[in-house]
Write a structure and sequence with these properties.
The chain is mainly β. Helices cover 7% and strands 42% of the residues. The two termini are 34 Å apart.
């Protein structure tokens, strides 16, 4: 049987500037005092362009070290090729990478319900697991029913860090409103004002609106806060509400008085 192959996409242009030729070596080829590239041949090569590069033909689930000489110094980054996607799919537990996403709050295949944002000015939260460090540029939502007459400069979407719950990225009010007032039954992608690097661990999506009619988003049909947040503390809730009375800015940090909520919104990241 042929070994399962996989690819790895690197977005760390802070480590490897655009134009850098990067080589991938098996992790075992490097040691703690390594200087320069290993004597053995690399297994893949790619050039960083527009902040991204992809290494093809790697062994599924195997560990590698990316290497290049940058400014006369060694630059390295440890990565792991994803597991065989055919195996993952066969288990019934598809992961975001199968749909070329960086993360999501839950498998969109089970988003068979909807949730309309409730009280205006209330922050609605959804926690998203990240298996590895990723560079996030967009927030994805399914707009079941568009909002209407939303208040200018008073609707926002953003991301919050694990633990500190400080705001780490946001979409502008104009972008948020444009997407919240978009087309019914459509997948909307809300660009962040600046991409953010996060993970592994969790990152939390948060949004609020002000206006006449709130948008309705795809959600799990689960209706009990205790069920969708089973086994976690209040501040670690998967789905919750946070600050209230918000108008012209997202909070930073999210207030400690998070309230577990039956608002299992589907959120994707790309």
């Amino acid at each position: 049987m042929l070994p399962a192959m996989a690819s790895v996409t690197c977005t760390r242009s802070d480590v490897f500037p655009n134009g850098t030729v990067i080589k991938a070596y098996p992790r075992v080829g490097f040691h703690s005092a390594q200087q320069g590239a290993p004597s053995a041949a690399s297994v893949a090569e790619a050039t960083m362009s527009s902040g991204t590069c992809t290494f093809e033909g790697l062994g599924a689930g195997q560990e590698y070290t990316l290497y290049a000489e940058v400014g006369g110094k060694d630059a390295t980054l440890a990565v792991q090729a994803p597991a065989n996607t055919a195996v993952v799919a066969a288990t019934g537990l598809p992961e975001p990478s199968l749909q070329k996403l960086l993360g999501y709050s839950f498998d969109p295949a089970v988003a068979s319900g909807t949730f309309q944002l409730g009280v205006a000015g209330t922050l609605y939260l959804a926690r998203i697991p990240l298996k590895e460090q990723v560079k996030i540029s967009n927030i994805l939502l399914w707009l079941a029913t568009k909002g209407a007459t939303l208040t200018a400069a008073q609707c926002f979407a953003g991301l919050f860090a694990e633990g500190t719950r400080q705001k780490v990225a946001q979409a502008s009010a104009a972008e948020t409103i444009a997407k919240f007032e978009g087309t019914n039954a459509s997948l909307v992608s809300i660009p962040l004002e600046a991409a953010v690097v996060a993970g592994p661990g969790y990152i939390t999506f948060g949004t609020f609106y002000n206006g006449t009619t709130a948008p309705t988003l795809a959600a799990s049909p689960a209706s009990a806060a205790a069920l969708v947040n089973a086994g976690v503390s209040t501040t670690g809730s998967r789905f919750a509400t946070g600050d209230t009375g918000l108008t012209t800015a997202l909070p930073s940090p999210v207030t400690a008085s998070m309230v577990a909520a039956a608002s299992p919104i589907w959120v994707g990241l790309s």
